[in-house]
Amino acid sequence: MSYTYQHIQVKPITGHTGAEIQGLTLSGDLAEEVVQEINQALLQYKAIFFKGQTHLDDEAQEAFAGRLGELLNHPTVPIKQGSKHILELDSSHGARADSWHTDISFLDAYPKASILRSVVAPAAGGDTAWANTTSAYASLPEPLKALADTLRAVHSNDFDYAAIVKNKTPDAISKYKNFFNSTEYETEHPLVRVHPETGEKTLLLGHFFKHFVGFNSKDSRKLFELFQSYVVKQENIVRWRWEAGDVAIWDNRATQHRAINDYGDQHRVVRRVTLAGDIPVGVDGRPSETLRKEQKQDISDYRLTHDGQYEKVS
User: Fold this and answer.
1) Which DSSP state fits 1?
2) Residue 79: CA count within 13 A, CB half-sphere
3) Taking every pair of C-alpha atoms in the chain, what is the biggest distance, in angstroms?
């Protein structure tokens, strides 16, 4: 993908994935041509980074994100109190997403992209890594590409919550699960989706994967590990060392990411705004399909408080 940028400075970080955008102050008032080039850089590099955006607060982050697309709240996790769209991940409350995933892939129209802002960064550790699932597909041997193009996979939000809510009691994990499973989803996706803006083929896996259609759980896991091994090859990965005020944006349709849990008791806080996506379409033109959507609890009146509690608001 060749493109000449006229309004932003783009510094690639690796050969396949990631670029730092320099000399830009993010806001909801950016010129349209600048916004278009930010989106172009996102499509080209899959994950893009902006240093030193310490002027941003929650409202300004939401305003900037709104220039890139329609904002989407997490369907089963309450937003931060006092915000309209902010999902806060605070390590002191156990929020450590230390496994490879594509955000909210249990939805049929899972998010287009996310905008993540560092509020508190550890002195050491706490990096986030992104893997390019487009270059992963491109690196598959031809027989594996042919197989991948035919496979369909079920994704669900029923998974190992203890792996996400780190260092918490069984009671805390249970409370988190009750919210995360307030609506239970199962969705069938193509393993290979055709990117709606670039036309590239990209692998859709991550920790919400349950099984491949037509395969038992044992064989599904073997196939998952085979394809996932191509995603997380070092040459597909970019890793970002956070400082407070940094902002990352990633194309959720063409990446997986993982927050590295190597910072012990140090404090880490990031805040995320997510953009609505569209329903994936496979190589054969067949779209994703919702298999199950069962609401058990309405969380629309709940908010995440500063002390990590879920509180119902009037």
Assistant:
1) -
2) 19
3) 57
